[in-house]
Amino acid sequence: MKYFAISAAFAAAFGLAACQPADQAAPANIEASAPAVTQYDAATFFMTTSFGMADSSGHAFAASDGRILISSDETGVFNAYAVDPVSGDREALTSSTTSATYAVSWFPNDDRALVTADGGGDELSHVYVRELDGRLSDLTPGENVKAQFIGFSPDGSDIWIATNARDAAAFDVYQYDTLSYESSVLFENSDTLAINAVSPDGRWLALVRNRTSADSDILLVDLASDDREPVLITAHEGNIAYSAYTFTPDSSALIYATDEFGEFSQAWSHDLATGERAPLVTADWDVQFVTYSPSGRFLVTGINADARTEVSITDLETGEALALPDLPAGDLGAVRFSRDEGSIAFTINAATSPSNVHLVELASQAHTQLTQALNPAISEADMVDAEVVRFASFDGVEIPGIMYRPHGASADNPVPALVMVHGGPGGQSRIGYSAMIQHLVNHGYAVYAANNRGSSGYGKTFFHMDDRRHGEEDLNDIVAAGDYLRSLDWVRHDQVGVIGGSYGGFMTVAALAFHPDAFEVGIDIFGVTNWERTLASIPPWWESFRESLYDEMGDPATDAERHRAISPLFHADTITKPLMVIQGANDPRVLQVESDEMVAAVRANGVPVEYVLFPDEGHGFRGRDNRITASEAYLSFLDTYLRGEGE
Fold this sequence. Notes:
Elements: H1 10-13, H2 42-46, E1 51-53, E2 68-72, E3 79-83, E4 90-92, E5 101-106, E6 113-117, E7 126-130, E8 136-138, E9 147-152, E10 158-167, E11 170-177, E12 183-187, E13 194-198, E14 204-210, E15 216-222, E16 231-232, E17 242-247, E18 253-258, E19 266-271, E20 277-281, E21 286-292, E22 298-305, E23 308-315, E24 320-321, E25 331-337, E26 343-350, E27 353-361, E28 366-369, E29 387-392, E30 398-404, E31 415-421, H3 435-442, E32 446-450, H4 460-463, H5 473-487, E33 491-501, H6 503-514, E34 522-525, H7 531-536, H8 546-553, H9 560-566, E35 579-584, H10 592-603, E36 609-614, H11 624-641
Parallel strand pairs: 31-32, 31-33, 33-34, 34-35, 35-36
Antiparallel strand pairs: 1-2, 2-3, 3-4, 5-6, 6-7, 7-8, 9-10, 10-11, 11-12, 13-14, 14-15, 15-16, 17-18, 18-19, 19-20, 21-22, 22-23, 23-24, 25-26, 26-27, 27-28, 29-30, 30-32
């Protein structure tokens, strides 16, 4: 579980950009001896639009005309849009200028839509109805309320939503009438279990008890019973991690994840009538997701294959892979079937091409790209592709990572480099488009996104190598990644820095504090610096996995000495290298006071520290202008203190 991760992919979540308008980007050579590459300011990269699909548990295609529900940040802030499947024209359904608003689902029988938004990054997301006249009706009002859409009842008369309105630490399941919006309790979650899924017929509820970071259980609730008592279905001995993917469309089986049979999570089915279990999807990598088309005819699976997603769509009537036309290179994602299953919408993402929404008519094989995410001012040839590169760490453990090498970097033209550390603990750097990374690489900085031990995606043994040892061997992997970069003849050995967000921000500052000669500079983005405070002040809605978090990180009641030992704040006097700190004032995970204290402590050493505080952000960036400001700040800081142009 990625407790402190800002998103599935840290690089994308922390992409931040520049202040100059896109039309002021000017051609330049990175180095006189390098091939001509046009350099762009961060604003040009961040005029690239991010697109996302509606929730897989809802309806992506409108009942009346088949318009596709998506999210887009084309105005600079995420809002919900309806996309014409023929022309690609977009209609804005929401118009927030402050809080990011994300598309969730069309209503089953009309063109109302569900959307979700929090309060400026505070993570207290509410579920809203976008009425036919454009008004937003808050289904889950109240202070300190957090809510999440689960699904619709089979006849479309009710919406199922999980909310912590009764108890800030527990998510109960409510049903909301789709006409009156009146609500009633379906399940009161007195044991603060994690809500995973509701069966399409509304009878079964899948819950997860996270016992430790390596051990979890699935419980089922029969909502048709009188007592609605959760029943354990995964009794076992030893450490086995279970979680639920989904239910089959006919509500006959639960599809769940288990790592019982090897290093990786497999997808298995649990027959709800007989309890019989059978493997559904197995691979030499983790099964990321399992979904079905509305009727259940098509099975969609995703495999996390070495930091890329391999998607398969199988026609269960024939057992054959669904035929698709030739598509652009990249990873498929967010596959959504139309209601009649005659077409599918999906995204394609690559390192040099951000996610675009595509549509394929299955009968004719007609393919349409409905969006153009990349700013047309950018030539894709000026960006760089990503490559999976591995190195042997300090103790011989093989560490994978994603390398972005600037055009023209060579032994005759070495470049400065950054080790990038993902969020977590337990996140993973993956191949995909990042405006932040491409902006840095475009300006001559190599980026190596290391997947240190403890990262997900490489088996449970690798994942658990850092349990209760955070800031130790995993940090040594990051230091070793810097040494690996210095061993490359195309990297300047005296110009290697470290950058990271959330848990990666902690690793960044820890590297400067505990290995003061390992890197020349560090950039901390929303990073933990005081584990004593962070673990004692986790948001109440994390209660369902608090025990698991404490098992991995240590309980603050008993492990305070170790938490203090690994917290950079208490060792700030050893930091001698320039530091940049990025913080959101509304961050509920890493409180602003942590960064305030860290900045003051390092400045007391006489060390250059640049501090950028965003009053309208939480744990991660949601506004384009803030991404622009941050990315230009990164570049200016690196040019000054790593490349040494203005020191």
